[in-house]
Design brief:
7-stranded mixed sheet, globular, 4-stranded mixed sheet
Length: 406
Amino acid sequence: MSLQVSRHDFDQWMMPVYAPASFVPVRAEGSTLWDQQGKDYIDFAGGIAVNALGHAHPALQQALTDQAGKLWHTGNGYTNEPILRLAKQLIDATFADRVFFCNSGAEANEAALKLARKVAHDRFGAEKNGIVAFNNAFHGRTLFTVSAGGQPAYSRDFAPLPPAIEHATFNDLASAAALINDHTCAVIVEPIQGEGGVLPADPGFLRGLRELCDKHQATLIFDEVQSGVGRTGSLYAYMHYGVTPDVLTTAKALGGGFPIGAMLTREDLALVMGVGTHGTTYGGNPLAGAVAGKVMELINQPDFMAGVAQRHQWFVDALQEMNQRLPIFKEVRGLGLLIGAVLNEDFAGKAKQFNLAAAEEGVMVLIAGANVVRFAPALNISEAEVKEGLARFERACARVLTGAAS
């Protein structure tokens, strides 16, 4: 007989680095989820932009179970067919010539920063080691990536931090230009700051970073962990902007819910990393490769991308109409199905209240800082689920507005 567990057990048994919702999900299909009590929720959170094809997608289930009957894991002393096929899919679909597979976005960014440091070290010497990142960015929770992230709340308790990392102001090219010089080995930037408030980059800002990196022979890294794999309506956001990085990191939606990350780069940079310079035990395992390969096959289609743009409009139109009735948001921004509703001054700092009230009404949303309610649903979410979820969200907002939310 299996152990009966509840949300209360989390507080007794788990390290308290999370504050999960009061309910425990047990089953999901598409963009609808059920908890232990059988209550249903419309999922606008998407596992933090991970469940690109929703829950329990039959084609992903089939890919996983088929591979599970063949080969699970061998370690990096061997390669495997699913991961090689996935590498070719990514190469054919992007600027990249080479791929490194890992298990998460943080690991992909760690690999990218290490690559940039090694390229500079081998080509220019040890003094070219500076990294320029941006305030309010998020690149992961390893010591290196959290230092690059530019959110001191996540890094200050873990000092001493890796050195030679400076932070400029996002979307302020002059601020970046003041820091980028011949000692800079890398610039790392999110085309859309996700955790930092769902803030898209200005096209001129990214073009300017590309020019500065070319001028100073620095590696331009695009962190597309949250914005990649169709999230913006392009396979990767760099395609939307028309600015090509030297290195791109991807994870989250790549596995559609199965853990996988990847770093993509050009041939000339990749060859700096010889055998033994970097690695990971689980990275590039056959199970992840099989599932991610099916995700790429389904998402990287013109009709699918057009569907993302259509769904973006459903959300934006409905949120703006709702805002006419309940004046809560001062701006709705984002690309594709990475959308941020920015709270106005009357509700500054209260994004978590809206998140909690939404859960009580049966809809799951995210926050991006204290002032932004974030939506990152499945890219194939149905129109019926969008309508029902937004109706529930409006009821939640009304409760917050009247002070009735608990």
